[in-house]
Specification:
Layout lengths: L1 H21 L6 H17 L11 H13 L3 H6 L24 H32 L2 E5 L2 E5 L7 E3 L2 E4 L6 H16 L2 H14 L4 H24 L4 H12 L14 H12 L8 H17 L26 H8 L5 E10 L2 E6 L7 E4 L2 E4 L6 E5 L2 E3 L12 E11 L1 E10 L11 H15 L6 E6 H9 L7 E3 L5 E3 L7 E5 L2 E3 L12 E8 L2 H4 L17 E7 L22
Parallel strand pairs: 2-4, 9-12, 16-19
Antiparallel strand pairs: 1-2, 3-4, 5-6, 5-11, 7-8, 9-10, 11-12, 13-18, 14-15, 16-17, 18-19
Helix pairs in contact: 1-2, 1-8, 1-11, 2-8, 5-7, 6-8, 7-8, 8-10, 9-10
Length: 575
Amino acid sequence: MIAYLLEASLILATLTGGYGLLLRRSPRFALHRWLLWLNLVVSVTLPLVELPDLRPEPVRQLVRTRLADMPRFSAALARKPAAEPVSPEVPAPVPAETQTVDWMALMGWFYGVGVAVLASGLLLQLGSLYRLISRSEPRETDGIHWLHNPNVAGPFSFFGWIVLDESRYTPDERWHILLHEFIHYRQGHSVDRLAAEWLRIVFWFNPLAWWQGRLVEENLEYLVDQEVLEDGIDRKAYQYTLLKVGTGIEPAWLTNSFGTVGLLRRRFARMSQDQASQGGLWRYGLVTILLVLITWACSKPEETSAEGYVSSRKPVTRLPPTNPSRQLLHRWSDDDLWVHQQLIRTRQGYEYVYHDFSSLYLIAQNGRLGLKNPPESLSLWIDGVPKPLSEIPKLSLDQVDEVFLVVGWKQEAYHRMLIQTRVAPSSPPLSDKGRQDYFRVLEALAVTDHPGGRANTFSMNGLLEATFFERKDALVKRTRKQHLALYEEVKDAITVFIDGMEVQPDAVEQLHIREVKTLYANERPIEAWVPDLNPNQRPGDPPLTRYVLYIEREPKRAVRDSSYYVFSPFYSGDF
């Protein structure tokens, strides 16, 4: 909830600020009314809508690569010193059980109090308006129905009710007032005012939400003034009426009234301007670009299942509680838990989902589950019962029915793993594709530290340094004769290109390190090299190799003369 409010508030602040700075002085009042409605709708709905990832594929690949190279954020957060030592045979306690102040809950209560106070004020104001309207006397002037009430200080309208004290005004002034308020009623401006008030209540902590309400009121008054003058009312006489009605009278809250003195000054200035000048179209172009950028920034990867493993984060309570593990998830529904990884059984078969690779500590080796650098806050439940982490290697893949890896945050990150076992492990056998693919992913996580892929580029000097320190991310090492050679662990899983042509991996050994102009070493994401996971792989095609090596040569460096020298503390060969 807090995350949604912050994201929606940021969008509202950006759109309202852009409107106020770029479009507020433009005379297209009817268009501005719909733009302000767009501000409200986009701010409220965009954080709730799962948009497709609009970034180009190279950008997505780069982000995945960089994230894969970063330290495991969730694990690092969880490795804070515990208040008390925990036995390795007992699941780590969930931080929610500590006695420290729950700041998230405190913020939620504080926010709720603000909403309750403002909502109560709105209800009281609506009740006051109802009593005032019900005690007024109906009147009619030239087809306009209105209400007379001697107790109102200034005229106002609310939906179809126009209320004023007729004894305070001359017939001409009364006609100006009735025409003004009738236009408010005819165009439904009370809906705009109520929507702006609702937005202000929900986002009361955001100053731009209050400014949005004032911008809505200001634009509606500009729009009505424009229509009144277009109906043939004399501008000077109309301004005198506004001055008489609006001076020294506090406008009624939530209603369409004649505004404050400051607003009257701006309205008079607008009436004196040339409304025929509609320039400044570039400002609308900037606002359109701003809206596109906000939509792009809020785009999220689409959820996938057996065909892939990147998805938007989902709450843990969307599955029916049909087994002890799912029932436990429903008991935790009030916690701020998110699924990072799951294998679920459906009527159509098994499906698996990965949110990201921050929870890559669950692996599979030799037909059994295992752990790889688990966070200290990890706790385990098997069939809904707490178990020590030492129970995980005892589970064979045949026993596993469903898996849930969830992550929460209360003072610090904490991780929970739920494993549901089969009633009859041998029936059915491992035949479901979604389940097989999930275990293929776990097996791949056991052999790689970069499931999202990794790419490195080396110049010759950079390669000299990398091979001197035996960096495995270069994929090659240097022999005593200053030639290149592939590491043994990559020889059988690599595709090599030299000067744009694919060659046999052994061809790397023919290259002297001084010939290399640029070397590009790439470990592909696991969905590319694990069999049957690549969605672009056609039936019958062999899977891609795990590694790719691109080498661009500089032929003149291979000539043994004095035209080129190598100056590097990491080079001890010729030249």
